[in-house]
Amino acid sequence: MGNRIYNILFHTHTVSGIVISVALYVIFFTGSFSFFRDEITNWQRGHSVTQEDAISGSVDQYLDELSKEHNLYGRDVVLRHYYNERNISVSIGASQDSLAAEKDKARVFFYLDTVDNTKGNYEGNYHLGEFLYRLHFLDQIPYPYGRYLSGLVAFFFLFAIITGILVHWNKIVSNFYTFRPWAKIKTIWTDAHTALGVIGFPFQFVYAVTGAFFLLKGVLILPVVMGMYDGDQNKLFEDLEYNHPVYEFQNGKLNKEIHLDQLVDQMKEEWPSFRMTETHIFNYGDKNMHAAISGYLGYETKLNGLGYRIYNMANGSIVDEKVPAKNNSYLDAVKNMMFRLHFGDYAGIGLRLISFILGLVSCFVILSGIMIWLVARDKKNIPEKRRKFNAQVANWYMAICLTLLPVTALEFILVKFATEVNRTFLYQTYFLVWLAASVFFILKKDIAFTNKWTLISGGILGLLVPIANGVATGNWIWVAYQNGYQHILLVDLLWLILGIVSLWIAFFKLNTSKKELAPS
Predict the structure, then answer these.
(1) Contact predicate 455/405, CB 8 Å
(2) What is d(CA 34, CA 25) in angstroms, rounded to the nearest whole number?
(3) Cα(135)–Cα(34) distance, rounded to whole angstroms?
(4) Which element (helix H / strand E) includes 22?
(5) How does DSSP classify residue 251?
């Protein structure tokens, strides 16, 4: 590789990396916890959940309960369960009956707890797992700007990792084996950025590609919609099989009882290991009533086993179906695999634990990149004014990034003792504490101090998370283990290990002089 090409790649890598570093750190840090979104949800609520991505209980019973509070005639009713938690979402469309009361022409949406039958709206149902999951693609920024921003970060991250690999290509083998965790901190920065960057490249590449795909697809498909579909977005969605078919309301009563459970049982018998994730009922109680039952085969049976069946409820006939064991198309494979690769949920808890560790390793790579950037620009031949500016930028970056650990640990403690946890509570506590902590360390203007005390505070608070859970709910680690509360146990153990590792690094790996930690 010539010097000119090398310099171009090196500067592209440096500039793209430093520009997106803070947003990228937030995405990777919160994204690591997002692998356990459902576990965090059940840990917060003290729920023990055994089913996986399936609507549990009787669909007929749910519909009977809904009919007591809502006039369902002529309305579309959708029950969905996409996450491994007790709640399912219930969506009731506007009635198509022209004689229906005004209240029946209003749409209804809520979450239903399938165990205690309590209901809640999106605001009240918001939880810490959902908060961290949405923060990892910056969804707290008004839609769609936060998602586009995170999509652009993922896109430029793709540039950064590709140029980084090319820059280190000639020494990729030696760099892979060069990591000296027992050396001084400056050496750790360099080794971590090269060795861990090379080790984590496949993981980071997958998440850069899939993240950019999910968050920028609205922009990417715009030329396709305008050029091939004459601006008709719905037609594109139909070709991509995102839209359900339409069944006309015929304004005539269905003269038979509605029983969906036997249809679900029939599908599960014909398709072993089938897990129902959605039931969509068209024109409830009308003579043209249809029911679409969708789901997938367990990953132990088939990785890409999406399937559905649509019934005509008047005569019980099958109008349309996709057999998950054999009728999956290339389109299904592309759509589903992009999600599975990004969520890392197709190989059990083991893969998600590996992804969690690699996510935190990526955070370390980002921080080491910031420090390498600072050290490289803290030379005597660089004007003092520019050196101070570079130091100030690095100080801001490190303060904002490193405070995420103690702030997140503190939020896990707060949700266990708060009388009510909703979106407003999470926004106010998390962002205000994060802002205050960041400002404190920014004003301190000491990266070594920030590094050490965010680890110490994060480690102590991390160790307090399982204690707070035990005090608040009685689900101590040993109790959760004895009762088989796997989700609760997992979250407690994660924080226990994170707390111990953070304190070990703070007291044994950062037990160096301020001079060594500071850039030279």
Answers:
(1) yes
(2) 14
(3) 9
(4) helix 3-34
(5) -
- Quote the distance between the C-alpha of residue 249 and its chain's center: 38
The amino acid at 393: V
What is the pLDDT tens value at each position of the chain, 520 positions in all?
A: 667 776 777 777 788 888 899 999 999 999 999 999 999 999 999 998 876 668 888 999 999 999 999 999 999 999 999 888 999 999 999 999 888 888 999 999 999 999 888 999 999 889 999 999 999 999 999 988 999 999 999 999 998 898 888 877 666 666 555 555 555 556 667 777 777 787 788 899 999 999 988 888 777 776 766 667 676 666 766 666 667 788 999 999 998 888 999 999 999 999 988 999 999 999 999 999 999 999 998 887 888 888 999 999 999 999 999 998 886 777 777 778 888 888 888 888 999 999 999 999 999 899 988 988 888 777 788 888 888 999 999 999 999 999 999 999 999 999 999 999 999 999 999 999 999 999 999 999 999 999 999 999 999 999 999 999 999 999 999 999 999 999 999 999 999 999 999 999 999 877 544 444 444 3
List of residues 6+ apart from 237 with CB closer than 8 A? 243
Tell me the H-state helices in 128-260: 128-135, 145-167, 172-177, 185-191, 197-199, 201-220, 222-228, 233-239
CA distance 406 to 69: 45
Q: Quick one: which H or E segment has residue 292? A: strand 290-297
What tokens were used for 265?
């049982």
Whether residue 271 contacts residue 297, with contact meaning beta carbons closer than 8 Å, is answered with yes
Pairing of β 290-297 and β 119-120: unpaired
Task: State the virtual CA torsion across 419, 422, 425, 429 in degrees, nearest 10.
Answer: 100
Amino acid at 200: G
Task: Evaluate whether 472 touches 412 at the Cβ level (below 8 Å).
Answer: no
CB neighbour list of residue 267: distance below 8 Å, 6 or more residues apart: 274, 276, 293, 309
Q: Per the structure block, which two tokens stand in for 171?
A: 């020494």
Distance from C-alpha of 125 to C-alpha of 123, rounded to nearest angstrom: 6
Q: How far is CA 111 from the centre of its chain?
A: 20
Instruction: Locate 477 and state its tokens.
Output: 């680690």
Q: Which residues contact 326 (CB under 8 A, 6 or more apart)?
A: none
CA atoms within 13 A on the CB side of 184: 9
Q: Are 115 and 56 in contact (CB under 8 A)?
A: no
Place of tokens 């029939």: 266
Q: Which pair of tokens denotes residue 269?
A: 């018998």
CA 101/CA 120 separation, integer angstroms: 24
Do 321 and 308 meet the contact criterion of CB atoms below 8 Å apart?
Answer: yes
